[in-house]
Design brief:
Number of domains: 3
Number of strands: 10
Distance between the termini: 28 Å
Number of helices: 13
Radius of gyration: 26 Å
Bound molecules: zinc ion
Strand content: 5-15%
Structural class: alpha+beta
């Protein structure tokens, strides 16, 4: 559901993506706001209604981005990397590189978004009050004040994955010291709210009462989105627990498949196909000089396999990310996801003692979940 979408640029060094659904929903929102301005200001010309509708949609889009940047700035202050921000029409998602380490951090990151939206609502309210009544500036600014106020308030509903759910989790986490129980509560809260929204939405869509047909479909859709996100967030906690206490040295493979840097990529591909191993250390003059994998080899065009050496295709040693046997696997997995790395050598002192891959970690998680070895 939460794909990366189209990348449109960077703010504060964070890549900003538009979700694929965004284009359709942006058009729908613009149309409905044009008709809103038409009914509110019948004395305006048609092009004024359109200008106000489009301008409001764009400013709303900026407002959602501002909300997510609120979360991101606080996360960055805690040295938590922000991988990307994806914008949906009804909100955004700042994907952070790892979970907050303390309840206080989680609380501050979660509360920053709604506070940013409330501040923006206040700003638009001031602009509206200072502008001549009945004009376009006043109409657009007061509409955005209302929308930002609603955005902040909706996000404070205490159910995962909304900000209010995170705030609830941080509070329960702080009070009980139990992260799992706190997440369970916020996740159940989120699912309850999602079911309520779906039921109210379907009821309205069928009967044309309460929220109306269009509003009903809209609510059911958001409810369904929230439901899957709430369930997913709980699954993530199970994963986190399944890896408690596991270190890289416990699950690494001590076998060190090695190839020489002077062989061709073609020969290397033969080796991969023959052995099924997907990642190799590269040696030159008895030293480790780099890392080569299926992924690195596949970046070389097929017709150049015979003429290209492993040396030219490998990741050179200075660019290879490494781990140590003591690194907690949960931390390592977050690092691999953030950097988009599939394999890492495990280094003790200046010696490579093993290899670890994302696949291995995922298999460990799967096995531990199947065996019910999940600590509360
Ligand atoms: Zn938020």
């Amino acid at each position: 559901m939460v794909g990366t979408g189209f990348r449109i640029g960077r703010v504060l060094g964070i890549p900003i993506h538009l979700h694929a659904s965004w284009f359709l929903l942006f058009a729908l929102i613009t149309f409905s706001w044009v008709s809103y301005f038409t009914s509110q200001h019948p004395q305006w010309s048609g092009s004024q209604h359109w200008a106000a509708g489009i301008l409001s949609s764009l400013l709303f889009f900026g407002s959602v981005l501002f909300h997510e940047l609120g979360h991101s700035v606080v996360a960055l202050r805690y040295k938590i990397p922000v991988v990307s921000i994806t914008l949906f029409v009804f909100g955004g998602l700042a994907r952070i590189g790892r979970e907050a380490r303390t309840a206080k951090q989680e609380f501050n990151i979660a509360v920053a978004g709604p506070l940013a939206s409330y501040a923006l609502a206040g700003g638009f309210y001031l602009v509206a009050s200072a502008s001549p009544g009945g004009g376009m500036v006043e109409a657009v600014a007061s509409w955005l004040a209302l929308i930002n106020f609603a955005l902040a308030t909706f996000n404070l509903i205490p159910g995962f994955p909304l900000d209010g759910g995170r705030i609830l989790r941080a509070i329960v986490w702080q009070l009980t010291g139990n992260y799992t129980r706190a997440t369970k509560m916020a996740s159940v809260g989120g699912q309850l709210i999602a079911y309520l929204m779906i039921v109210a939405g379907i009821y309205s869509a069928l009967t044309d009462e309460f929220l109306g047909r269009f509003g009903g479909i809209w609510w059911a859709f958001i409810g369904w989105f929230l439901l899957s996100a709430a369930q997913e967030s709980f699954a993530q906690v199970a994963i986190r627990n399944s890896l408690a206490g596991v270190r890289a040295g416990d699950i690494m493979s001590a076998e060190l498949p090695t190839v020489s840097r002077s062989i061709s990529v073609m020969d290397y591909v033969d080796e991969i196909v023959r052995t099924g191993r997907r990642c190799h250390l590269v040696q030159g003059a008895g030293q480790l000089v780099g890392l080569i994998s299926v992924h690195a080899a596949s970046k070389i065009p097929r017709e150049e396999w015979v003429t290209t050496s492993v040396q030219a295709a490998m990741i050179p040693r200075e660019h290879v990310h490494v781990t140590s046997p003591e690194e907690p696997v949960l931390n390592l997995l977050e690092r691999m996801q953030t950097e988009d790395i599939n394999q890492m050598p495990v280094v003790a002192g200046d010696r490579v003692v093993g290899l670890i891959s994302r696949d291995t970690i995922l298999r460990v998680i799967q096995t531990r979940l199947e065996m019910g070895k999940v600590e509360e």
